[in-house]
Amino acid sequence: GSFARPPVRLRLTQTAAADAPALAAAAPGAAAREKRRTLLGDLSELCKARLSAFVALTGAAGYVAHGGAAAIAEPEFFALSVGTFLASGAANTFNQVIEAPRDARMARTRMRPVPSGRVSRLFAALWGCAAGGGGVALLAAATTPTAAALGAGNIGLYALAYTLTKPRLEINTW
Q: Which of 34, 50, 95, 105 is most buried (CB neighbours < 10 A)?
């Protein structure tokens, strides 16, 4: 009827762009926080944080299944979870470094951190080395040599064997 409101149409992009200088001036340090948040978001996207969390969860579940619920309080449980997360994140990061040229051509992947240019391939590779080295070192120092070897082996398996054969061979799915 006559009391119906007209639809509201927001132009967030224009408003945000116009207000950016005022917002930055109003909140000292906001630009630095936004850059930090963007970098953290890019690092999270490089390591596919949600997927890596699920990988770590499977290791954690196995640890709990072996040692019972009390195992969660053990430092080794924490080291296994974090080390596995970092190793998985490194494998995902190396996968994106290797596939950056192909990702740049695909609509689904072109906005990832490396093909979009938000981070360089060198930066991503260094992040992968830091995450992988840290994860495997943590596994080696606080769990078992077998866990560390599995972490390192899976980085190589995913980042090299899978990623390099994916466009050429069907065997990579095995």
A: 95
